[in-house]
Amino acid sequence: MPPFDLMDVATRKLRRAQKLSASFLREVSEWEDKRIGIELERDDSLKIISFKAMRVPAIPDDWTDQVSDIMQNARNALDHIAFALAFISNGYSPLDERDARKIQFPWAKSETSFKALTKSSGQYFRAEDWQRLEELQIHNAGNADIWGDDHRMPFPHGVPLFLGALFKLANVDKHRTALPLWFGIGETSGPPDEVNGCPTSGGSIMDRPIAAGEVFAEWRFSDALPEAVSFELISKHLPLRLRINEGFFHWPEALDIFTFYILDMMKILEGSLRSVGTVLWTFEPVLRRAEPPRPTLAAAREQGWL
Questions:
Q1: Could you read off the pLDDT of 18-54 as tens digits, one per residue?
Q2: What is the DSSP string of the chain?
Q3: I need a surface site. Which of 87, 222, 277, 284 has the fewest CB within 10 A?
Q4: For 255-291, what is each residue's pLDDT tens digit?
Q5: What is the end-to-end Cα distance of the chain in Å, rounded?
Q6: Each residue's pLDDT tens digit, 215-226
């Protein structure tokens, strides 16, 4: 049995990240609710309703720092897990200083890169633990042998996808790069089929930062325009969210279809922290009871990934 709770530090780091995230998301939600003004412009001849942003204040300067703090605590939780696994692999003995400096949670952009990590770092981990760590990599996000039907092809599974977002964001702080936050339209299925009995025929959105005075979306109608459009309908089909610049994430080509979804900052934070929780739960039997790690898919499902 482990001589002490090897998950303690990682658990505390994740809880700290979750607490910071909850506070930050409340602040963002209040900012979105109170500070964004929308004006509707009607063109009866073209049968178009346009949506113009009237108030879009600058994003608070400290939001980048808050996101960095959240991601660094979550990343630290993963590194503590990796260090604990290496400690176990070393017979529950501390590694020498030179080897200890090499231990961090392994993450690679591709299968080829992970093979290089295996050569340089795999020796510090037990084979069954290293296998689980590989299953969590981004190149396995669409692997049905690992994720079964849960990955819902053509979409990748959320655990490796959001772990990738976490590592990308954490590296921003490491390299002292400004996080490219902006305000725009989040995940949307497009315009509603009809508004107050008036059928729509399509629409368009502006997929870039929204500025005051700019039209950011249009809904086209088949016949007459509706007399009014409710705030609830606008919020549902044109959700205004804190987002990340498109050029920030560079997913493998197979994951491009998921890019628009993941740019919503709230989803990134929620998904990243839940993914870290899945990693901790995967290795909880190893670290607390000297048992084999949980199957990756089972751990994900128990953490709410379905």
A1: 999 999 989 888 877 666 788 999 999 999 999 999 8
A2: --SS-TTHHHHHHHHHHHHHHHHHHHHHHHHHHHH-EEEEEEETTTTEEEEEEEE-PPPPTTHHHHHHHHHHHHHHHHHHHHHHHHHHHTTS-PPPHHHHTT------SSHHHHHHHHHHHGGGS-HHHHHHHHHTSGGGTT-HHHHGGGG-TTSPPHHHHHHHHHHHHHHHHHTTPPP-EEEEE-S---S-SEETTEEEEEEEE--S---TT-EEEEEEESSSPPS---HHHHHHHS-EEEEE-GGG----GGGGGGHHHHTBHHHHHHHHHHHHHHHHHHHHHHHHHS-PPPPHHHHHHHTT--
A3: 222
A4: 443 444 546 788 889 989 999 999 999 999 999 999 9
A5: 32
A6: 999 999 998 999
The Cα 254–Cα 141 span in angstroms is 10
State the Cα–Cα distance between residues 288 and 276, nearest whole angstrom: 17
Q: Quote the pTM value.
A: 0.85
What's the confidence (pLDDT) of residue 241? 81
Token code pair at residue 217: 């979306």
Q: Could you tell me the residue ranges of all domains in the chain? A: 8-302
Residue 159: exposure state from Cβ atoms within 10 A (0-12, 13-18, ≥19): buried
Q: The tokens 């509603």 sit on which residue?
A: 192
